[in-house]
Amino acid sequence: xxxxxxxxxxxxxxxxxxxxxxxxxxxxxxxxxxxxxxxxxxxxxxxxxxxxxxxxxxxxxxxxxxxxxxxxxxxxxxxxxxxxxxxxxxxxxxxxxxxxxxxxxxxxxxxxxxxxxxxxxxxxxxxxxxxxxxxxxxxxxxxxxxxxxxxxxxxxxxxxxxxxxxxxxxxxxxxxxxxxxxxxxxxxxxxxxxxxxxxxxxxxxxxxxxxxxxxxxxxxxxxxxxxxxxxxxxxxxxxxxxxxxxxxxxxxxxxxxxx
Length: 259
What we know:
Blueprint (H helix, E strand, L loop, with lengths): L20 H44 L5 H28 L1 H4 L6 E4 H20 L2 E5 L6 E4 L1 H17 L6 E9 L2 E7 L4 H5 L9 H7 L13 H9 L3 E4 L3 E7 L4
Parallel strand pairs: 2-4
Antiparallel strand pairs: 1-3, 4-5, 5-7, 6-7
Helix pairs in contact: 1-2, 4-5, 5-8
């Protein structure tokens, strides 16, 4: 399994020290890494459409222009070369930078769901929820169910789902995690009451970086998630599952025996 160093990153001011401070810093670093690569993916995708359109219109204009007009011909060549340069940059820099998280390697082993859920909830409480007075309630945790997948990666997903929900909640609010088995699928939902101002409240402790919290407040296009939740989506898909962000909930669905 690929791991990434947290470097000198420290928990944000206001977050109390805890025995798991180093792990929390690493989780924050991985969250930032996946967000960076997600942003690059969005940039790559959204830039290609207008570049393709420019390239196509260049051919249309070429057929309409006077073949003896040397200035117009140079302009068309310049447009094509500019488009090709931009596409090459996307391929050699943007797409190449995303390689580590795009080709995500999983270390699959059988593990019990209940201890993973309990340990992750405890981590989020100690690192952020308790200091903000936010209560995390856990409902319907599978008691003895075994899962075949990457336990550490899935713990990261739960950690980020809960941390995001706490970050989005006002002081002394409540966050609910419901985890259950639906047929052959592990289904987990984190429900919360979004308070946009909480993301930027300087009087509250934070774990997610300021840029991520700011972007999470912006309107989302249909089917898209807040950039900071990219880790959840990527790991869910690597397990053959799905991750969704709704107005008041985050939903994870993963097959029990991930292929």
